[in-house]
Amino acid sequence: MTEDAAKETESQIGIETALQGIETYLPDSWLPYWQQIQDVPFVGFFVVVSLGYVLAKLAHLIFRSSFSRLTSRTENNLDDQLIEAIQRPLFLTVFLFFVGIAVKTLSLTVSFEANLIRFLASVVVLSWMFRGFRILQLFLESLSLIKHRFQLIQPKTRPLFELVAKVLLIGLGSYVLLLVWGIDPTAWLASAGVVGIAVGFAAKDTLANLFSGFFIIADSPYKVGDFVILATGERGEVTHVGMRSTRLLTRDDIEITVPNNVIGNAKIINENGGRWESSRIRIKVGAAYGSDVSQVCDVLEQVAKDHNEVLKNPAPRVRMRAFGSSSLDFELLAWIPQPVLKGRISHELHMDVYNAFNQAGIEIPYAKQDLYIKEFPGENSV
Fold first, then answer.
1. CA dist., res. 57 & res. 42, Å (int)
2. Cβ(16)–Cβ(110) under 8 Å?
3. Whole-model pTM?
């Protein structure tokens, strides 16, 4: 006997074991009545099919009533939809099981009977596989309702999860169907593995960007509308976060497209990523040595308070940072409503500080060097 023939025989034995004649399940006292029913052509078949329909309906009602009591306590209707999705394949499984038993009562050829039972089993597998798509969507939807900082299931990541899960579900269903029809899936799995490795090597950059984009969307280090600074120094507003790339719009109205594989492995400064949407700016100012440092602090704080767009809470503050080579180095720290205003408000504060220092008589020094000539060379010097 060849290997294929042996596998065909094993598959046939497995199916016959699962679907034995109904007399196996009947009490001994009922067997004479069953034998009389079988003497009439097709009567036994219709009796078993009718019995299977009744039991399938009964299983359907018991399942629905039992789980409806549990789902009535929940707030959302996802569990109700899950019950609706399971009811039909459950009914088909029970009903077609009895149809398979009923087929055993007919005087059919062995090959035709085996193929008919395989067809019924295939219908059951396909019904669960197609309903699995709906169950999968409900499961992902329920996970998306869980609010957490590291939220994997989001509107943008759900299509990727659905695609991967559907591919796995189709693969599992196909594997079971091959087993039902007595086909060895080993060669198919080996071929799929080789194809997968070849595709992985050919599209490694695309896959790297895809997975990086998935984790960027899931982890949310930045979102559309945030102002970020790249490791290379570019600063711009995030206009699009996709599965392959991220786009930034700079203040020069130039769009920068960065592959997710690059931006996912680089240091990114998110100016909108703090506890509040507001942002702090720093204005560095130098005052001449000999200036009244208290006066300098008061003047700088007043400049910030007088500006309409500088936030009053947190209040602006001034810090003396260092004794510079030609100046006393101060820093004005002020909060602004949004990072997008950083450039304009910094410009206005610099001008206001200059005017306020002039009015207060505070000198803003600049780098100066004194040159001392020890002696001039004599007239007779060469």
1. 23
2. no
3. 0.52
Contact by Cβ (8 Å): 216, 151: no
Residue span(s) of the chain under CATH 3.30.70.100 come to: 279-360
216-270 under CATH 3.30.70.3400, yes or no: no
pLDDT digits (tens, 9 = 90+) for 282-314: 999 999 999 999 999 999 999 999 999 999 988
* Tokens matching residue 290: 């000999």
Task: Read off the pLDDT of residues 84-111 as tens digits, 9 standing for 90 and up.
Answer: 888 888 898 999 888 887 787 777 788 8
pLDDT at 306: 94
DSSP 105-163: TS---HHHHHHHHHHHHHHHHHHHHHHHHHHHHHHHHHHHTS--SS----TTTHHHHHH
Q: How many CB atoms lie within 10 A of CB 218?
A: 15
Non-local CB neighbours of 75 within 8 Å, separated by 6+ positions: none
CATH of region 279-360, choose from 3.30.70.100, 3.30.2130.10, 3.50.50.60, 1.10.8.60: 3.30.70.100
Tokens matching residue 154:
């989001």
Contacts of 362 (CB under 8 A, 6+ apart): 287, 288, 291, 295, 296, 299
Alpha-carbon gap, residue 203 to 209, rounded angstroms: 10
Strand-pair category, 227-229 with 279-287: unpaired
Chain mean position to CA 41: 59
pLDDT value, residue 18:
46
The edge-to-edge listing of strands for the beta sheet with 245-250 is: 255-259, 245-250, 235-241, 227-229, 269-270
* Angle in degrees, CA 259, 265, 271, rounded to 5: 85
* The pLDDT of residue 291: 93
Show the low-confidence residues of the chain (pLDDT under 70). 1-41, 70-76, 145-157, 159-160, 192, 195-196, 198-204, 218, 368, 376-382
Q: In the prediction, which pLDDT does 185 show?
A: 77
Contact predicate 256/236, CB 8 Å: yes
Please name which of 278, 213, 295 lies closest in space to residue 247, comparing C-alpha atoms. Answer: 213
